[in-house]
Amino acid sequence: DGGITQSPKYLFRKEGQNVTLSCEQNLNHDAMYWYRQDPGQGLRLIYYSQIVNDFQKGDIAEGYSVSREKKESFPLTVTSAQKNPTAFYLCASSTRDRGQMASYEQYFGPGTRLTVT
Amino acid sequence: GESVGLHLPTLSVQEGDNSIINCAYSNSASDYFIWYKQESGKGPQFIIDIRSNMDKRQGQRVTVLLNKTVKHLSLQIAATQPGDSAVYFCAEKGSTGRRALTFGSGTRLQVQP
Question: How far is B105 from chain A (nearest CA, A)?
């Protein structure tokens, strides 16, 4: 089955600890994304990567870091500098099609719910 | 309907009725729009997309309408079923710059049996 996996589904951490969320895809997609979702709200972009070894900050990158050493993997680290880390984190991937018929559909993983106390 | 930044609105419909979910977007340069469905505790699932050179696109039981004059997008679901109950998000992509989508805040659809 092709798709995106995120692990774990639930994650609990103490305040002040860094934590890394896993995201793996076997869709052969070049682009990958991390979003944060708070209760009753939409998705906000944290970081995205259009190709291996390259990534850009999204709208709320402060307190987060990423790496893209392999095409299949785009782990997100929530650092102790992130003021309100408790949230639902979603990873997505897409192709890098260009042109008029390009698809910008993003395929999402099942999410990781992070609780920091 | 929905607008970015507002508290999540809720649309309640009877099973079998048609549903219309609205979305106002802000970027007049956006050239691609997409609707996602998100069930509780899960990742969003693609429903339908539309490019800015179109004003209507139909899928299975769903239709998306785009009105660029007033920057409005709507999702119509025909013969709504209990399984359609979820939060629906519209998202847009600007014509230049980053490839990533910008999401609205969503509308919760509740289908009453």
Answer: 4
CB < 8 Å to A4, chain B? 43
Whether residue A42 and residue B34 make contact (CB cut-off 8 A), yes or no, is no
Give me the residues paired with residue B66 across strands. B73
Is there a contact between B34 and A105 if contact means CB atoms under 8 Å apart?
yes
CB contact under 8 A, A42 and B99: no
As averages over each run of 10 residues, the pLDDT of chain B (113 residues) reads: 54 97 90 94 94 94 96 96 96 75 91 93
- Residue owning tokens 């007033």: B70
Secondary structure letter of residue B103 according to DSSP? E
Quickly count: other Cβ atoms within 10 Å of residue A105's Cβ.
Answer: 18
Q: Is A103 left (phi over 0), alpha (psi -120 to 50) or beta?
A: beta
* pLDDT beneath 70, residues of chain A: 1-2, 97-101
